[in-house]
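Sequence design from tokenized structure. All designs in this work follow the same two-part layout: the structure record, then the generated sequence. An example of the structure record is given first.
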């Protein structure tokens, strides 16, 4: 018989028997922090319990659920002493949906928490010294004489609702039959119908609602995951905030849509601003939304949007930042930190569709962008042409492979900008940055832990982190975005 042993040879049940908390029992917990998924981190008899819905500073009554050796999970039964930062979540489906994690925390407190998460990561993971106090959001790069890294207040939105420019809504068969579209009930694949999402632009809600109504009227069958029968799998709505252009994409389990002309006519009638109606075919049994083929049912294959002065073409499958208002704030900050005069050579690593590259190109001599997804580089080149930008060159490949090759070709950047995915920069890339010795490194990060880890490597290699600016790209969620400025030490 296979037994789960710990180092001392004790059985799992014995370990749990020794815990100061017993499964299914009720306790009073003191909440001391917020965990990675927005859950309260509580303490009971010195033991850590993760409590969804609880906030730091609160005293709560909970029921212990799943227990492990070092920590456990508990259900919030009652808030005995509420945090002054607790608010009523405005969304009626907040608890069922799981798309937002922080709606029960006031927006000001969310912004403070996001800054603190960056500070804690820099100190604990990066072993970096952070200047004391909240440095405000001056962000002029001048922290001469200060001890440690200046971490500014999180730049938040004046209206932190309805900020998303893209909705991707799964469609399914209701238990009682009929078509529903909305979100997956937490921890399941059951689709709950939804008419309004408070972080989604109103236009996207209206588009999805209209398409669902039309699909019902035309008798289009919803896709059923169980049997993989039925046609309509997902409705995607994209909205150009600065142009008003709308794209609708129908993801179907099959090439043919019966009465497609009628469908297009009804969508055009219901959605006056629509510029593009596309169909993407996905016949795989998969959670991946898009299949390989996309065709235009009506209108253009792209819609346009602008960030600052830069214009972007967005196709059905293009990556494009989902919060355009804060994207501009983030990129302006990155541009600021790059400190360009018009002459510099700049590398944009992990460049996606070239958004940051095109921003930088306006003030640089030459920009080189590298990205691993070939389609994104196609978009980047198209966007450069669209904007008449000719001082930027894009290459497909791993940043950790292409940038060393550029080094061998004699490219010597004054500034390197990196914007890696959650896992952070590849070690080989960090090494190349240290060898290339740019005067500045601007690090855009969506994960404070890997940011801190990578800053440590750059600091050890001769750079100093001057300041970090958190920017709230995803209000009411636990995602924390920030941009850091590093300069090369004069002595190195
Ligand atoms: N800077 C862009 C995209 C950032 S997202 C923007 O602001 O829009 C991170 C990007 O890194 C993704 O496009 C992903 O495809 C790309 N990527 C992931 N691993 C990579 C690697 N090893 N080398 C280059 N790009 C990579």
């Amino acid at each position: 018989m296979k037994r789960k042993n710990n180092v001392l040879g004790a059985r799992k049940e014995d370990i749990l028997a020794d815990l100061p908390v017993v499964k299914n029992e009720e306790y009073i917990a003191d909440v001391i922090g917020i965990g990675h998924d927005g859950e309260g981190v509580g303490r009971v008899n010195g033991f850590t319990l993760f409590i969804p819905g609880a906030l730091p500073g609160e005293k709560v009554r909970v029921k212990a659920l799943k227990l492990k050796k070092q920590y456990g999970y508990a259900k919030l039964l009652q808030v005995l002493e509420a945090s002054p930062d607790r608010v009523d979540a405005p969304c009626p489906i907040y608890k069922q949906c799981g798309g937002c994690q922080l709606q029960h925390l006031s927006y000001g407190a969310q912004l403070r928490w996001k800054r603190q998460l960056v500070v804690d990561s820099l100190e604990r993971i990066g072993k970096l010294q952070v200047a004391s106090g909240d440095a405000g959001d001056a962000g002029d790069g001048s922290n001469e004489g200060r001890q440690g890294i200046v971490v500014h207040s999180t730049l938040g939105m004046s209206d932190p609702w309805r900020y998303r420019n893209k909705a991707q809504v799964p469609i399914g068969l209701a238990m009682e039959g009929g078509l529903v579209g909305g979100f997956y009930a937490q921890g399941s694949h059951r689709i709950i119908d939804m008419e309004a999402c408070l972080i989604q632009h109103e236009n996207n809600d209206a588009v999805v609602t209209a398409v669902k109504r039309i699909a019902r009227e035309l008798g289009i069958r919803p896709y059923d995951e169980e049997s993989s029968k039925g046609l309509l799998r997902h409705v995607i709505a994209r909205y150009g905030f600065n142009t008003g252009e709308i794209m609708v994409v129908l993801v179907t389990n099959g090439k043919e849509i019966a009465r497609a002309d009628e469908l297009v006519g009804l969508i055009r009638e219901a959605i006056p601003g629509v510029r593009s109606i596309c169909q993407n075919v996905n016949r795989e049994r998969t959670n991946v939304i898009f299949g390989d083929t996309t065709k235009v049912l009506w209108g253009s294959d792209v819609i346009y949007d602008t960030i600052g002065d830069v214009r972007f073409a967005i196709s059905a499958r293009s990556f494009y930042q989902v919060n355009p208002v804060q994207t501009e704030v983030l990129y302006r900050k990155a541009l600021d930190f790059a400190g360009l005069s018009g002459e510099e050579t700049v590398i944009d690593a992990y460049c996606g569709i070239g958004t940051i590259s095109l921003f930088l190109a306006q003030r640089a001599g030459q920009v080189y962008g590298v990205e691993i997804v070939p389609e994104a580089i196609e978009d980047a080149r198209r966007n450069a042409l669209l904007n008449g930008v000719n001082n930027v060159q894009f290459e497909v490949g791993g940043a950790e492979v292409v940038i060393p090759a550029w080094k061998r070709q004699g490219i010597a950047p004054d500034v390197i900008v990196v914007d890696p995915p959650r896992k952070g920069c590849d070690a080989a890339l960090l090494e190349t940055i240290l060898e290339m010795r740019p005067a500045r490194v601007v690090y855009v990060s969506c994960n404070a832990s890997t940011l801190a880890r990578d800053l440590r490597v750059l600091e050890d290699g001769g750079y100093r982190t001057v300041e970090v600016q958190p920017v709230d790209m995803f209000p009411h969620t636990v995602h924390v975005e920030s941009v850091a400025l590093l300069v090369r030490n004069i002595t190195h």
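The chain has a mean pLDDT of 93. We note this feature because it recurs in several other targets discussed in the main text.
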